[in-house]
Amino acid sequence: MVRRIIAVVLVAVAAALLVSCSSGSTLVKNVDSALNQIPGVINTETKYLNTPGMSSSFRVRITAATDVDLETVLDESLHAFAKASGSTTGTISVAYYVFSEGDEENGIGPDDFGLSVTPTVQEIRDYASSNS
Question: How does the average pLDDT of the chain come out, rounded?
Fold first, then answer.
């Protein structure tokens, strides 16, 4: 009987992990697709980290062309991220960075617009809705 209960619990945990991984994968694809449509964006690297029993987080790094204004790319990308985040939990933190190609050390982040250095998804949504 105990073995059966343990087996059921393990199957439930495995199923939950698979669902969270697949939804994270879809979310990353949606975010990358939205960010790559912004004029001047050369490359995006979006990662969704979900450690069971711990917090989840995003990491977004955007490489922009050298001839575009980074603030414009950052603003447009925050709007695109907000839209693409769908129904994602708003409390997830986002490490966000935009830089020119070949100049990774001199990029900008959401704190340049008054957000925290690592805002939550909801803070990005609030920024996007108030700066439309």
Answer: 84
Contact residues for 132 (Cβ-Cβ < 8 A; gap 6+): 79
pLDDT at 83 over 60: yes
Give CATH for domain 24-130: 3.30.300.30
Phi, psi of 98 (to 5 degrees): -125, 130
Residue 124 in this model has a pLDDT that exceeds 60? yes
Is residue 36 packed enough to be buried (19+ CB in 10 Å), middle (13-18) or exposed (0-12)? middle
DSSP reduced 3-state for 51: coil
- pTM of the entire structure? 0.79
